[in-house]
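User: For my dataset I need records formatted as: sequence, then structure tokens, nothing else. Please produce one.
Assistant:
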Amino acid sequence: MIRDFAGRLKSVLGIRTGKTGEATSFRTVFTRFRDVLDNNNKALEIITEMGEKLGGEYLFDIHYIRPAYSSLASAVGNSMRSFDALTGGKYEKLHDAFERIDGRIRSMIYDIVSTSGKRVYFFEDITWDMAREVGGKNAVLAELKNYLALNVPGAFAITSRAFDEFMDYNGLGAYEDLQRHDNEALSASLSEMRDRIMNAEFPPDLDKDIDEVLGKIRQTCGEDCFLAVRSSGEEEDGDLSFAGQFATILNVPAKGGPVKDAYRRVIASLFAEKAATYQRRFGYKIGQLKMAVGCVAMVDAISSGVIYTATPGGDRDTLMITASWGLGASVVEGETDADVYLIKKDIEPRIVDRKAGDKEYMIARAEQGGTERTAVPDAKRKQLCLSDEQVIELSRQAVRIEKHFRKPQDIEWAIDGEGGVFILQARPLRVEEGPPGVTPSVKGAGEERILMENKGIVVQKGVGGGTVFFVTGPADLEHFPKGSVLVARHDSSEFARVMPYVSAIITDTGSPTSHMASLCREFRVPTVVNAGDASRTLRQGGKVTMQADDEGGVTVFEGILRERIDRAEKESMKMEDLYEYRRRRYILRYISPLNLVDPLMDVFTPEKCKTIHDILRFMHEKSVAELLESARLGTSLLKGHRAVKLDLPIPTGIVVLDIGGGLSVKPGEDKATLEQITSVPLRAIVEGMLHPGTWHSDAVSLRVHDFMSSMMRMSDITSDGGEYAGYNVAVASGEYVNLSLRFGYHFNMIDCYCSENTRNNHIYFRFVGGATDIVKRSRRIQLIAEILKEYGFNIKSKGDLIIARLSNIRQDEAVGIMDQTGRLIAYTRQLDAVLHDDADVELYAKNFLAGKYDIN
């Protein structure tokens, strides 16, 4: 009988022919599968080591990263060769993805400046990996537009290549003079550089490209179109925000002259003194950054503002929206007492608090270009400028953005006269994590005299002490004494010029979502805004200690309390503040993050691979799929190989094709007992099927309707070559099994790789069919899904078909789940016949999970 089976299997199933025409046995398929896994593991070990090196205790340099990445690329290349052999080269686009990602990484490792690409890109043409060409701000905004399909105004980017050409054409590419440490000489050099940029000529090709793109954008938004011309530095809106450091020119007519003048002003702002201070503080040489520029169609905003997807105190379950009339500049620069909304991130966002600010002024578009500061009509000053519906819609979009980037976000938005919501910017939000930590409590302060208490909104927690210094305008910053406490009526991004030397900041007005607030978090300066009357309460030249915490807002003590300051003080320069550290971490963004999470989703394609890790993940999942397909098509028959039938006390009808270590049988034996199964996953499945009470030998009676349904489907069940055709075949090795089962009118496939290496392990479960009508068959699928969910499977089901996957599990866990899977196979063979209503689904699922297997 076994010889008859083997002969039929040879003729019906045969062997597989690869793309090049060679005969491919399943043993070869399995060997190639193992090669993919082995090389993937080598690559993942290198990626893990890179991540550990970035843990903060060791700053690895270029002498580490170059050989490490070379080894990584070699392992990925070896894996791709095995993968191509396994899949017959069907995923050619994966090579394109690897070449794209590899090119990005090598250009950063070896400081290769790309000479390819365009000088100008419309946002629609910007892909996720173009941050170096178009700058961080443009890249993020384009991703929101193209990937999340959010409402972003029409826009184009003038690239870093254009910047290089502009600077070189005008002889501005040498920055040696800007590296001087003498502040007076540096100030003069920076001023000279800005003057030269403002008088510079455009290279002819760039001049032409800008004119052409302006002509196209006017076709979209009209001849009277106006643009916001915005900075988009190489790392801007990445790990560092550069908030308020570079110029944004609003309401620029979309014509050659005005746009090119605005472009010069944005480029020149790279060499502003406050920007130079910021760059030097975070490890950049002045002139090291390249400046791309974004040109975004202006929104005729009725209201605008900022969303924080977590509160400044670190509450990630709460959104904060600040809003004002007109353009958002009044909010981000802290020039107005904005409305504030707090929203809980429930299934549906829920407003928990709202406060109307006294919006005395707003920024509006001027008719001929530029902006103007105008008074808000008395009737609207204290009127909330957002409806509840608008708050909820903004919250929904903010949650989507946060989920996409996987970290809290600082988002700028605007709403036009027709109620349209526009997203104008998104960048990572630095917030405090967890409890207050080292910040000491003000309670029980003893003899300390309190000058201010429970005032304001905390932007950056901490303690700082020094001499009070009032800042009424930018000129006062020229004389700011190092170590002083800065007190001001309004907040301002200009304060970045002195932030390296500030002990603490207190402002009477301002917003926790302003540019200055972002900068304070980056510099880790203890800061409180909207404190009300600090400028009137505190005395110029007085000695104070300011403490900012979540519970009490700002508390200002008289005198410099050194003990408090010492207890709360953190390192002034942490590892993540170093430019070289951030540069290596930026390289890792193309290596270690995983974006391809769910192989059952349509986005699981080579084109969606953004990192080396994505490529490894794609190859792993598709290698498993190839193994499944090879086993399903019957390539398991090996030349000269015999099938061995399992001799079990239940009629499973399973025959085993051993591809290495699956059985322990003597030559000539054509039967194997349970004790002779050496395949770890196969033995676990069979033991589960043999578990007392799971296999029901008595037939379950069918109702007439069910019987007729099964008869109507008989030709589908029994046809040769169909989904249900064939025998119960197990292809097994010591760590692997692919088991195809047909019991009556339903079909099972289980594929499991169960090794000591957790990363390699997977379980694939597929079930379809049944003898009853579609309603009962669907109930059985629902029951199986409920059970498999308890074990962590990722499930996709439709009608009477269920596909479930589980991966990255320990060997002992996989063995336990395979045992339960065997029980489930036996338990559910005839279960559809007794699932008369939905309540039965819940009942039998609970019984199974409780170890009760009776179905009568």
